[in-house]
Amino acid sequence: MYNTTKYVESNRMESLDELNDRYARTLLPLTVIFGFFAIFGFLGNILILVVFSLSRDYKRNNFKVFVLTLAVIDLVICVTLIPAEMVKQRKYFEFGYVVTCKVKCFFNVFGASSSCLALLVISIDRFRKVVQPFKKQMSPAIAVRILIAVACVFPILLAIPGTIMCGIKTTNMTNIHGGNTTIHLCETEEKYEKSIWRTVYKFTFIFLLVGISVTYIVLYIFVMKEAAKQMKAISMQRKHSSYDTVFTSGIYNQNTIVHETPIIHRKQIETHENGTNGMPISNHVEDDSQSYGTLQNGASKRSKNNKQTSRINDRQKKTRHFPTKTIIWFILTIVFIVTYITHNLLTLKVEKIVNMSPSEFTLFSFFFRIYFLNHVINPIVYAIFVKRFRSSCRNVFPLILSKLRQYFER
Question: What is the β-pairing status of strands 280-286 and 266-271?
Answer without folding.
Answer: antiparallel
